[in-house]
Design a protein that fits this description.
The complex is a heterotrimer of chains A (249), B (249) and C (198).
Chain A lengths: L3 E9 L5 E10 L4 E5 L6 H8 L7 E6 L2 E2 L4 H7 E4 L12 H11 L4 H15 L14 H13 L5 E5 L7 H16 L3 E5 L12 E6 L2 E6 L1 H4 L26
Parallel strand pairs in A: 3-8, 3-9, 6-7, 7-8
Antiparallel strand pairs in A: 1-2, 1-4, 4-5, 9-10
Chain B lengths: L17 H17 L3 H18 L3 H25 L15 H27 L2 H12 L7 H31 L8 H29 L16 H18 L1
Chain C lengths: L5 H23 L1 E2 L8 E2 L1 H29 L12 H4 L4 H20 L5 H31 L3 H8 L4 H27 L9
Antiparallel strand pairs in C: 1-2
Helix pairs in contact in C: 1-2, 2-4, 2-7, 4-5, 5-6, 5-7
The chains are: A alpha/beta (249), B mainly alpha (249), C mainly alpha (198).
Bound molecules: adenosine-5'-diphosphate and magnesium ion.
Adenosine-5'-diphosphate binds next to helix 1 of chain A.
Chain lengths: 249, 249, 198
């Protein structure tokens, strides 16, 4: 059974913008899916339906075969989301407090919150920053903090919205390593980006969204040829394979 | 900006229970407003200066902050010197200045200085997290005030201040490059600076709200835990209570 | 949508905190006036915006939080001052007056219905003038009593230097509201689905 499924998903905003139209997809557990598309094509709007931040005007989203409308809380625990803008995700005045936000929302006992926080900080290697003010962290570490905040809720699926936007080379590598490690530890990964050259080698599926429609969906090697026609930079040079598309050595 | 400059140290005032500290602050503020004669002021000064000594706060920044208040202190002094009435000083060029007036003015100024030091000790020794917890705890018994929501608001206010300032810095650099500053018409300046600034900040705030939703924001959350109040804290509270009693009798 | 409904609760909680942050920052941008203890600040500009954006239910929450933080000793009042001494000092009337401004302006703008954009503009201007009149009706006498100034002195220190500033701030607040408020209200009406709803 797919872990995430969208059926005939459409979203029309109050001002009449049809941001996504009739999107259908299925994602199996432990997949690593890259979603590409030019700016304004509806990627962000689409993924925000998957944890119920936006309610569709038509269609539905199913997690493990159940419609998410029935239990939004359960959905948001299972489907973690790392936003594009790390700064506007910070809700704590220290790193530790920020990671505690999720478990505290679940009203867990204090000892358990503490345990989850230290486990999550350890998983992303931020233990030594626990007492630091999040705003003083570098771009890459801020992204890792956002990841820790989500890990503290024990998600099965993690969605990344443009995780490399605005990061320098070391920051990108730091975050990419983390994402690959999360996939290796059994998480299902959905990653939105138009910078395929940084990450595609790690994905087992590539989807292209264009003007609100899911236009391509398949193995990276099959889909990558049609990138340019949908306004995404073709990352491959001649005689090179998909496996070269990563910033990890 | 030198906002809320908490200085991390390990003194009895730093490690003090936040609830008791807030209570002490309220007690001492009350004492200050009850003080009438010189002996009252001496007592209060002794208590507050001892606290300042115990807190081991750096004195130079404190004196620098005092500059802000110099004008207010001088104003209060001059106004009281002129306005109190009573026997005018012989041969003094301004007729309405009296000995009684100068004394009252000096007392007012003294009180103001004491309160400023008191506040400096409070902010210098208390992290915002401790303060937020203390506020939440203090509101628990008061009906109709949702204490967790107030706690969240206190927290978010201090999370958002740096976000707003960052946004302003980014914006003003961009605007300088486009020479917007040279416009003299203040209403036009508002159009060119305030509007895009606020609209950016609102967009960031909307993202923050989504991020909080995604992490299952709930007002039924894990309650703050407090360490056991140590004997030293009780001792400090006792000193504050004794001060106010001594002043009343 | 009413502030008590679940879906807009979080949104308004966050925005109330944001406007408190604005008011605090506005107080830091302060210019002393040579004739008295009342400095020119941007805090009142943000209080006006708070009234227009958050209305009479959430606006006062934002201002009250600002006052409470200052009373607890955090340096949030104009120029980084803090404490009960400021709240009951010469400028205390203006600080408490903010609360009145936000309630009155919020009530007037929300309770009076306007159909056209021009009507809204006039309504906002009138509501802000009423709120400011009230602010100075509290602030100036308070200043007179605390500092024992004569009326002429209190007016010279607490009102006259501010009149041009008030006019500019009202104009600016109204323009900001005209441009940004429609989208803000629309977004409030359709804020994210809450998990409690399910
Ligand atoms: N709240 C909104 N109201 C109206 N239109 C919106 C809103 N949010 C996004 N859109 C529109 O939806 C489209 C898709 O946006 P988005 O999903 O953010 O694109 P991207 O693929 O760059 O992430 C864009 O045309 C955008 O203008
Ligand atoms: Mg996007």
């Amino acid at each position: 059974m797919p872990i995430v499924e969208a059926r005939n998903l459409s979203h029309v905003f109050a001002d009449g913008t049809a941001a996504i139209e009739d999107v259908n997809l299925q994602i199996e557990p432990k997949e690593f899916v890259v979603i590409a598309g030019p700016n304004g094509s509806g990627k962000t709007v689409f993924i925000r339906h998957l944890n119920g931040l936006l309610a569709p005007t038509r269609g539905q989203v199913l997690i493990n075969g159940e419609s998410i409308a029935k239990n939004l809380l359960q959905t948001r625990k299972k489907v973690g989301m790392v936003f594009q803008d790390s700064d506007s995700q910070i809700v704590g005045q220290t790193v530790e407090e920020d990671v505690a936000f999720g478990p505290e929302n679940l009203n867990l006992p204090p000892e358990e919150v503490e345990k989850l926080v230290s486990e999550s900080l350890q998983a992303v290697g931020l233990e030594s920053y626990a007492a630091q003010n999040p705003h003083t962290l570098s771009g890459g570490l801020k992204k890792k903090l956002a990841i820790a905040g989500i890990l503290a809720m024990k998600p099965e699926v993690i969605i990344f919205d443009e995780p490399f936007a605005g990061l320098d080379y070391p920051g990108t590598v730091q975050v990419l390593k983390q994402i690959v490690a999360l996939h290796a530890s059994g998480h299902t990964i959905l990653l939105v980006t138009h910078e395929l050259e940084k990450v595609l080698a790690h994905a087992n599926r590539l989807m292209i969204i264009s003007q609100g429609k899911l236009v391509k969906n398949g193995a990276p090697s099959e889909v990558i040829g049609s990138c340019e026609s949908y306004g995404i930079r073709m990352p491959l040079r001649e005689n090179e394979g998909i496996e070269t598309l990563t910033w990890l050595k | 900006m030198m906002l809320f400059h908490y200085v991390h140290k390990n003194t009895p005032l730093h490690t003090m229970d936040g609830r008791i500290k807030v209570l002490c602050l309220v007690l001492l503020s009350l004492t200050a407003s009850l003080a009438t004669d010189v002996s009252d002021y001496l007592l209060l000064s002794a208590v507050i200066l001892t606290a300042l000594f115990v807190s081991r706060l750096p004195l130079i920044p404190l004196l620098r902050d005092m500059k802000f208040f110099l004008f207010l202190i001088l104003f209060v002094f001059v106004m009281n010197a002129i306005g109190t009435g009573g026997e005018p000083i012989p041969d003094f060029p301004i007729r309405s200045v009296s000995v009684a007036g100068i004394l009252t003015g000096a007392m007012f100024a003294w009180r103001l200085i004491l309160i400023i030091i008191l506040c400096a000790i409070m902010t210098g020794t208390t992290s915002l997290l401790v303060l937020k917890k203390a506020i939440e705890w203090g509101l628990r018994p008061i009906p109709f005030i949702p204490e967790t929501r107030v706690g969240t608001m206190v927290n978010l206010t201090f999370v958002l201040i740096p976000v707003v300032l960052d946004q302003y810095t980014e914006m003003s650099v961009a605007q300088k490059a486009r020479c917007v500053d040279s416009r003299k018409n203040p209403v036009k300046r508002v159009m060119f600076i305030t509007l895009p600034l606020l609209s950016n900040i609102f967009r960031k705030t909307d993202e923050l709200i989504f991020a909080m939703e995604a992490r299952c924001y709930s007002e039924e959350r894990t309650k703050a835990v407090f360490m056991k109040v140590c004997p030293m804290d009780w001792l400090i509270l006792l000193i504050c209570v004794l001060t106010i009693i001594l002043m009343i009798v | 949508m009413s502030p008590n409904s679940n879906s807009s609760n979080l949104r308004m909680t966050v925005y109330a905190a944001l406007f408190t942050a604005f008011i605090i920052i506005g107080g830091y941008i302060s210019v002393p006036v040579p004739v008295g203890p009342v400095p020119i600040v941007l805090a009142d500009f943000f209080v006006m915006l708070t009234a227009l954006f958050l209305g009479y239910k959430w606006g006062p929450v934002s201002v009250a939080l600002f006052l409470a933080l200052g009373a607890l000793g955090l340096p949030v009042f104009a120029g980084g001052k803090a404490g009960l001494a400021v709240l009951f000092g010469p400028t205390g009337g203006f600080l408490l007056g903010y609360l009145l401004l936000v309630i009155v302006t919020g009530l007037l703008t929300e309770k009076i219905k306007s159909v056209s954009a021009k009507g809204t503009l006039l309504k906002n201007i009138a509501a802000l003038i009423a709120g400011n009149v009230l602010l100075y009706l509290v602030g100036v006498p308070w200043l007179k009593v605390v500092t024992k100034l004569p009326w002429s002195g209190a007016l010279a220190a607490g009102l006259i230097p501010f009149i041009p500033g008030i006019i500019i701030k009202i104009a600016a607040a109204v323009i900001v509201a005209q441009v940004l408020l429609p989208r803000f209200k629309q977004a409030t009406a359709q804020s994210a689905p809450r998990h409690e709803d399910a």
